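call fold(seq) -> C-alpha cells
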Amino acid sequence: MEMVIDFPGGARVDAHFGPYTVRTDQPPMGGGEGSAPTPFAVFLASIGTCAGIYVLGFCRQRGLPTDGMRIVQRMHVNPTTGMVGKIDLEIQVPPEFPEKYRHSLVRAAELCAVKKHFENPPAFDITTKVV
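ret:
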C-alpha cells in the first residue's frame, strides 16, 4: 500500500490513498485554521474505530443489534513524558444487550489491527529523494 502525503496550504497536511483523502490541520494556536483534526487525533481515532469495526463484525455475524451501542475511548497522558501512556476502550451496551456476549465483545475489540501494530510496531526508514 502506498500513500501520498501533500501540503495543500497553511498547516494542512493530507494523505491520499486509493480513492480517499484524509485531511488534517492544526488548531489556530498551532498555526492552522482548525479545518480538520490534527494528525495525532486521526491516529488516536484509528484505535477506537478499528476496535469498533471488530465489535460491529461480531454483532453482525450473530444478528445482534448495535442500536444504543458505542465505544468511549479515553487517553491517559503520562505527566512525565507528555505522551499517551494508557488507552481505555469502554464498550457501552444498552441494558437489553445479552450479557453472555459482553466478554466476547471485549475479545473482538482486542483483535483490532491497530492495537496489534502497537504490540509489534513496524520499523521506520525515513529518507529524502530528489524528484
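Residues 37-119 form a domain with the GMP Synthetase; Chain A, domain 3 fold (CATH 3.30.300.20).
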